[in-house]
Design brief:
single chain, alpha/beta, Aspartate Aminotransferase, domain 1, Aspartate Aminotransferase, domain 2, 7-stranded mixed beta sheet, 4-stranded antiparallel beta sheet, 17 strands, globular
């Protein structure tokens, strides 16, 4: 049995009241809440092990280094990377994708092609546009079908002898669509291209095995999987990382520095300039352990149950438009109701204690494709309950009635 009430006890923030009402936190796609065990590990690192990593022979530095490198190995096992050298710490998914575009992008020539999709987050669009301006690459965009799934036939028709890379989200942060990244990676490889995946919305909801998916790069963030903010991961295939120039310069990423020339450190440190967030990296390990102790597959099934319950109730509301109905979608619902402005609906729900996200969700090209400027998004996490869904539906009906 999935014991959601037991899980909720591990998240103190869920006891808060907003405007006198119990908090209903349905903004998990933007960031998930953090269990007490993770906060406890942060406290432990600051109170017991705070010292700069990799640079000291004293006890505290060695303990902090051991904690960070243990976190790297934990992430390595979590995504089934071939070695720890393929796991690079970043500040988040955005920096990880920027690393790929900035560094692997230096291997691309004018006229080379990068394929994106219409459902990408801005962090998987803008870095490639910057590369387009800097190196003259060409960007192609895969459209989607009416249900929000990717148009795979259109994708197959986009490859040419100049296609060098396909970069795609594993799960859309607006539609909830789960893209078939294993198939996309195989398609890219069959045309001599590499595959980069934005996995920010996937890792907390489905088992990710980068070797089974056979992707070349995979980026994700701690804060979307019940961990601390400010830590992200870039998995990269070793042979590609070895070819790529450094992303940033400074301490830690060097082999030897002189004014006559500088050499680079071995992987993964070649891409980790400066003092890393070793405290939150260590706490990320605790978050992964917590998520796996609950069971990723069990969490996914629970969120799917909540999604179905919420969707059925929302579809009874006149004027309701839900965006993204592809089979197997993740536990989020993006919608508008009639001509009601998303901000107005979001603000009223907030007064009732419900936290949802409103706006373009860092996906303006997708909004344009849908013919809207923005929408409301409700997204579910491991600690949300049936009672919360039912209360949300009641509050949503009341808000709609007030605004029509």
């Amino acid at each position: 049995m999935y014991d959601v009430e037991k899980i909720r006890q591990d998240f103190p923030i869920l006891q808060r009241k907003i405007y006198g009402r119990p908090l209903i936190y349905f903004d998990n796609t933007a960031t998930s809440q953090t269990p007490a065990a993770v906060v406890g590990e942060i406290e432990h690192m600051y109170y017991e092990r705070k010292a700069n990593v990799h640079r000291g022979v004293h006890c505290l530095s060695q303990e902090a280094t051991d904690a960070m490198e243990a976190a790297r190995m934990r992430v390595c096992r979590f995504v089934n990377a071939a070695s720890r050298e393929e796991v690079i710490f970043t500040r988040g998914t955005t920096e990880a994708l920027n690393l790929v575009a900035s560094s692997y992008g230096q291997l691309l020539d004018e006229g080379d092609e990068v394929i994106l999709t219409v459902m990408e987050h801005h962090s998987n669009i803008v870095p490639w546009q910057l590369l387009e301006q800097q190196r003259g690459i060409r960007i192609k965009v895969v459209p989607m079908l009416p249900d929000g799934s990717l148009d795979m036939e259109a994708l197959r028709g986009m490859f040419t002898d100049r296609t060098r890379l396909v970069s795609v989200c594993h799960v859309s942060n607006v539609l909830g669509t789960v893209n078939t990244v294993k198939e996309i990676a195989a398609l890219a490889h069959s045309h001599g291209a590499v595959c980069c995946v934005d996995g920010a919305q996937a890792v907390a909801h489905c088992r990710v095995d980068v070797r089974d998916l056979d992707v070349d790069f995979y980026a994700f963030s701690s804060h979307k999987m019940y961990g601390p903010c400010g830590v992200g991961i870039l998995y990269g295939r070793r042979e590609l990382l070895e070819k790529m120039p450094p992303y940033q310069g400074g301490g830690e990423m060097i082999g030897h520095v002189s004014f006559s020339g500088t050499t680079w450190a071995e992987l993964p440190f070649k891409f980790e300039a400066g003092t890393p967030d070793f405290v939150d990296a260590a706490a990320f390990t605790t978050a992964i352990d917590y998520l796996e102790s609950v069971g990723i597959e069990d969490v996914a099934r629970w969120e799917e149950h909540l999604l179905q319950r919420a969707t059925e109730g929302m579809m009874e509301i006149p004027g309701m438009r839900i965006f993204g109905t592809a089979p197997g979608k993740c536990g989020l619902i993006s919608f508008v109701v009639g001509d009601i402005h998303p901000y107005d609906l979001g603000m009223l729900l907030d007064k009732m204690g419900v936290a949802v996200r409103t706006g373009h969700h860092c996906a303006q090209p997708l909004m344009e494709s849908l013919g809207i400027e923005g929408c409301v998004r409700a997204s579910f996490g491991m600690y949300n309950t049936e009672a919360e869904v039912d209360a949300y539906l009641n509050y949503l009906r009341r808000a709609v009635a007030m605004l029509q």
